[in-house]
Amino acid sequence: MPTNVMKTWLASSHFSGGNATYIEDIYESYLEDSLSVDANWRKVFDDLPQVSDKPEEAHSRIRAQMKLAAKATKCITPPNDVEHNDAKQVRVLQLIGAYRNRGHEVASLDPLGLTILETIKELDPFYHELEGADLDASFNVGSYAASNETMVLRDLIASLKRTYCGSVGAEYMHITNTDEKRWLQNRIESCESKPSFSYEAKNRFIEELSATEGLERYLGSKFPGAKRFSLEGGDSFIPMLKELIRRAGEQGAQEVVLGMAHRGRLNVLVNVFGKKPADLFDEFAGKHSTIDGSSDVKYHQGFSSDFKTPKGNVHLALSFNPSHLEIVNPVVLGSVRARQERLKAFSETVLPITVHGDAAIAGQGVVQETFNMSQARAFKVGGTVRIVINNQIGFTTSDREDARSTRFCTDIAKMVHAPIFHVNADDAEAVIFVTQIALDFRNTFKRDVVIDLVCYRRHGHNEADEPSATQPLMYKKIKAHATPREIYAKQLVTEGVINEQYAKQLVTDYRDALDSGECVVKEWQVMQHRSVDWSPYLKHDWDAPYESKFPKERLMELGESISHYPDAHKQHSRVTKIYNDRKLMARGEKLCDWGFAENLAYATLLDSEFNIRLVGQDSGRGTFFHRHSVLHEQTEGKRYIPLKNISEKQGHFDIYDSVLSEVAVLAFEYGYSTGAPKGLCIWEAQFGDFANGAQVVFDQFLSSGEQKWGRMCGLTVLLPHGYEGQGPEHSSARLERYLQLCAEHNMQVCVPSTPAQVYHMLRRQVVRSMRRPLIVMSPKSLLRHPEAVSSLDELANGTFQNAIAEIDEHDPKEVNIVIMCSGKVYYDLLGKRRDAGLTNVAIIRIEQLYPFPANEVNDILSAYQHVKDFVWCQEEPQNQGAWYCTQHNFRSILPADARLRYAGRDASASTAVGYMSLHLKQQKALINDALAVVE
């Protein structure tokens, strides 16, 4: 077959191994009647090379060519110095393809040698009919990078085994991008997965291994039985991490952000980040942290430092992390995205590194979500280096079949075509080798890459655990197994790089350094500056003063600006109507609705050069068709964003429709907001109750991050909430869950009821100096409620009201019922009261449920000190909503002899009923109950 024809044929994606039989069947039909097959297939078969002058060629010849296309990789360069009819040559290429595809399955990855490897028949030359004299014959090896053109088959097989079946198992043939595969093949095959390192580098590796082991042994002897989640068995992780940082610095990185769970965290803090051993020892001794608040255990703590590399200092940040394992990964990525945007450069400037456990990467769903986010517009960071500390045991699971359904824990990474490097953690140089390739791949192709560090756990899950009870065979092997430091030291002594005395001296010197209590990292540098400046936002409480007014004239100009789009931008008719109305609102000719007021809040902030980031599953348009910040041209689908075009000098406005995820996206936005304190960062749930899937982020980060770690964040969370008869999953945002988390002024929970209120609430979150999470029960039906409107004057000259007094002109002396409520139910109460002509009822809105605005409510109630009947009215069932969590606040501001009663739905296991008729019946009853109306 001619070379150019073979190349074209091999590049055809439909000739995959799984399709070979199917293609042969089509070809049989083609031979019988060419018109019986699809025109596309007919063209493929017509273009096949003619191997004979006869009109009907034997099908066996074509079948051999089909098998070649099915089994050989697309990136094999076909031999051009071997006759096309030499079947042996084809089989040699198939053998090379087999090693590339499956060599990692029999690689020597397990340091303990306990893994039972399956026999892969495709790796046997006999399977390819290569035997006897063939082993001493020379063949063209195509694109195999270990040789220029030809190799003796026996030597080729030995080379393939060294490359793909040694301490490194490279898994990359699932990647569809040919350039990426060729790049990886060249890096791996050119040195047979075993590059040479200088004496200086080898000395550095043994020093780092000595430090890793030295810290663990020191802690084990000084604090026996204390939990430290030892790294022993996976010691080469520290040299790996330091090599990543050094190489990243050489390639232009200014910052590295690391997220990891417990295993090895203390070792990373001391031996990479430069935390003083004395400070760690104080934590083991139980001395209190300097952080105000509840603090956290030592293996959850974060840290920052600067690290010297050959091309300059790199700032390191270790993210604080709770025990929810993989949840830190999207937090890291969000922080990295914010840092990259601040530096106005992506990819190489800030490197994210996430560290996983073997059971966690396969078992935690947030891993899949972060992989899925890796190339999405809103979340891409130029690729993440993902490292699995694979101790082959998970938590206490001893058998792989109990931990996952796949051979390798890293198979999840194949969903984004990430290359996976399995490496034996006992081979220090192999570990460094794959580390270098992984970083270079990430920086070259801006994609995720995975390193599977196959190791073991010398102790139990923690040091108080007895692992031999459940893994007797493994731990019998571990007790007799040399440590990674011992193995590498012996190798270097044999090579003549060091002597035994030097190896022992490294251990002694490190222990002496620990005794001194000072930093033991040679590369540690005093931080020149903090990566993110939080100083303007510290020591401010929720009632910090701020200027809420905005010039009305400029407000109207901005309103006009965000209500226009290019004439050539053909809009949907319904959107055109919305924008025509907005032009009237901007001129004061029509009252402002919710969507206009919200967009106007963004415009004023952008005009003041604040940046805004808004992410949600349908945020551009708005789930309920109200926002329309992103306009879609109806003929070509082009997008136009008015808020990006309000002035030449404005803040950045980024709005994204996110991937269909709650937990990973919210965690990402939390991480982003910790890295961008100045601007407004918003996550919007499609429906409020969808945030249930992200509850761990609320629990472990948003509500408690400041108390545990001293980490503040100003993230705003919009959770659509309201009872309109849409059933259990589309009514409640679970207000009670957020109120239950509230304490020590840790966050704000607001239920705005007018466009002016949402305008001022969003502005307040940015223009005042305090930065704490804002949880908003945002509306659905109120977005277009005829009463839920505001004037431009209310926007320009008003402020956010934590509580709103009665708006109708009733004589307070005639009032004998005062109803307090929040949200949409206010308009139902107001409508019914007006219809019934009641003048004895006052309705007060509590717009901020936490921190409870006691002073404002007291001022409003001063006119009703004679009233005995106070009511809290809510749409939610009695065991939900604000009643149970907030009634103590209501009672604290009532007159001494007054009583407080509840008006709302009965307690319920479900948030809402599923039938509209029943919903309306319940709604009518609770309104009448609150107003004391009998029908």
Automatic annotation (TrEMBL):
<dbReference type="InterPro" id="IPR032106">
    <property type="entry name" value="2-oxogl_dehyd_N"/>
</dbReference>
<dbReference type="GO" id="GO:0030976">
    <property type="term" value="F:thiamine pyrophosphate binding"/>
</dbReference>
<dbReference type="InterPro" id="IPR011603">
    <property type="entry name" value="2oxoglutarate_DH_E1"/>
</dbReference>
<dbReference type="Pfam" id="PF00676">
    <property type="entry name" value="E1_dh"/>
</dbReference>
<dbReference type="InterPro" id="IPR005475">
    <property type="entry name" value="Transketolase-like_Pyr-bd"/>
</dbReference>
<dbReference type="Pfam" id="PF16078">
    <property type="entry name" value="2-oxogl_dehyd_N"/>
</dbReference>
<feature type="domain" description="Transketolase-like pyrimidine-binding">
    <location>
        <begin position="592"/>
        <end position="785"/>
    </location>
</feature>
<protein>
    <recommendedName>
        <fullName>2-oxoglutarate dehydrogenase E1 component</fullName>
        <ecNumber>1.2.4.2</ecNumber>
    </recommendedName>
</protein>
<dbReference type="InterPro" id="IPR042179">
    <property type="entry name" value="KGD_C_sf"/>
</dbReference>
<dbReference type="GO" id="GO:0005829">
    <property type="term" value="C:cytosol"/>
</dbReference>
<dbReference type="GO" id="GO:0006099">
    <property type="term" value="P:tricarboxylic acid cycle"/>
</dbReference>
<dbReference type="GO" id="GO:0045252">
    <property type="term" value="C:oxoglutarate dehydrogenase complex"/>
</dbReference>
<comment type="function">
    <text>E1 component of the 2-oxoglutarate dehydrogenase (OGDH) complex which catalyzes the decarboxylation of 2-oxoglutarate, the first step in the conversion of 2-oxoglutarate to succinyl-CoA and CO(2).</text>
</comment>
<keyword id="KW-0786">Thiamine pyrophosphate</keyword>
<dbReference type="GO" id="GO:0004591">
    <property type="term" value="F:oxoglutarate dehydrogenase (succinyl-transferring) activity"/>
</dbReference>
<keyword id="KW-0560">Oxidoreductase</keyword>
<dbReference type="Pfam" id="PF02779">
    <property type="entry name" value="Transket_pyr"/>
</dbReference>
<dbReference type="InterPro" id="IPR001017">
    <property type="entry name" value="DH_E1"/>
</dbReference>
<dbReference type="InterPro" id="IPR029061">
    <property type="entry name" value="THDP-binding"/>
</dbReference>
<comment type="similarity">
    <text>Belongs to the alpha-ketoglutarate dehydrogenase family.</text>
</comment>
<dbReference type="InterPro" id="IPR031717">
    <property type="entry name" value="ODO-1/KGD_C"/>
</dbReference>
<dbReference type="Pfam" id="PF16870">
    <property type="entry name" value="OxoGdeHyase_C"/>
</dbReference>
